[in-house]
Design goal:
The chain has two helices and 18 strands. It has a single domain, classed as Porin, CATH 2.40.160. It is mainly β and 378 residues long. Strand 1 and strand 2 form a beta hairpin.
């Protein structure tokens, strides 16, 4: 009963936020433009309610800014642009400001775009899909930087396309960082360097084939046109002989991704498999993910949605699992939910109910979670 009351209160808060959204926010993007010179302002606001109900434990809930992320983009010279974006939401940590995109970019070469700075590393289709264009409120294991996917990294990033964008690719060289934890494989960025980060060079790339025309990195079928893609990515990271916290520090990581997606007739379906091999500095460490200093961490997710009201109401569902050498049981999650689009992805209300079993690989450690999130993008 208490849980139901909390959900009712959360829903009332979200409705109030929705009612005031059109009055509070004005959609304005380009604030200055003169030939090749321009300045663009934008951002995203995500207000989230989260309710967690573990088996055999007390339920908890919270209301917070999941992401509060403005950005500035501009150019003074043809083919060149710069962008920086920062986050003040909970995804950056309590009372912290984290750098997200922060790069310069050159577009004067027909076959390749060159990005220098802090930008997304070309691995994991789900992670490369913006948080503002996800079907479920929270990403699944395959798109979670806490479990192997590199996220943004500081380095040189190349992207390109061929065959009228039916073939797209990316390649990066970066100085990658890992936030040490035996229970996670958490790639962070040196743009937000913490004292205990361990760092090392990482190299990676991906290729995606789109047989029916380019399918962008976004979920949901608004155009109702048949599109499909299949992709693969890989990377390698090695420690610079940093030993910050002792034997729990990661020594090397390799990652492999296979992913695919289909859109059409209101249906949106994504599937992805990740495989990581990781070793720690201490070959005897048995803790969290690691057994005898190493782990094979694998994850899989399939998620889909159907527009029962075209471009307005979407029902969604997903299933995901994760396994590691030191897990006693496979960690699984099953999700169901719905998305209501007021202005497509710019203004939407999302609800996801997620049922988790064997959390962190521990048998019988189960919990259900409810997420309610209002999003405004400008």
């Amino acid at each position: 009963m208490k849980g139901l009351m909390k959900l009712t209160v959360a829903g009332s808060i979200m409705i109030a936020l929705l009612a005031s959204a059109s009055a509070v926010f004005a959609a304005g993007i380009t604030v200055y433009e003169d030939g090749d010179k321009y300045v663009k302002l934008g951002g995203r606001i995500q207000v989230q309610y989260h309710f967690e109900d573990p088996d055999g434990g007390n339920s908890e809930d919270d209301l917070f800014f999941r992401r509060l992320r403005p950005y500035i983009e501009g150019s003074l010279h043809k083919y060149w642009k710069g962008k920086f974006q920062w986050d003040m939401g909970k995804s950056s940590g309590a009372n912290e400001i984290a750098i997200k995109d922060a790069y310069m970019q050159y577009e004067g070469i027909n076959v390749v775009k060159v990005t220098i700075g802090n930008a997304k590393f070309p691995f994991s289709r789900e992670l490369l899909t913006s948080s503002k264009k996800q079907q479920l409120v929270e990403r699944t294991f395959v798109g979670d930087h806490n479990y192997g996917s590199p996220d943004r990294q500081l380095g040189v990033h190349l992207t390109g396309a061929a065959l009228d964008k039916k073939l797209t690719w990316g390649a990066s060289v970066a100085k990658g960082a890992i936030d040490p934890s035996s229970s996670k494989l958490d790639f962070d960025t040196l743009a937000n360097k913490d004292a205990d980060f361990i760092k090392g060079w990482m190299y990676g790339g991906r290729v995606d084939f789109h047989p029916f025309g380019n399918l962008k990195m976004e979920q949901g079928d608004f155009k109702r046109e048949l599109k499909a893609t299949i992709g693969a990515g890989a990377f390698s990271w090695s420690n610079d002989e940093d030993v910050v916290n002792g034997g729990s520090d990661v020594d090397k990581v390799t990652g492999l991704e296979i992913s695919g997606a289909v859109r059409g007739a209101g249906l949106s379906l994504d599937a992805q498999y990740n495989l990581f091999n990781a070793e720690t500095v201490d070959p005897t460490l048995t803790s969290g993910l690691f057994k005898n200093g190493e782990t094979v961490l694998e994850s899989f997710a399939v998620e889909g949605g159907y527009m029962i009201l075209p471009a307005q109401l979407e029902l969604v569902a997903g299933y995901e699992y994760q396994d590691a050498d030191n897990y006693t049981e496979v960690w699984t999650r099953t999700s169901v939910g719905a998305n209501y689009f007021f202005k497509k992805q710019d203004v939407k209300l999302q609800a996801t109910y997620r049922m988790g079993e064997n959390l962190k690989g521990t048998a019988g450690n189960d919990a259900d979670e409810f997420f309610l999130q209002m999003q405004y993008v400008f």
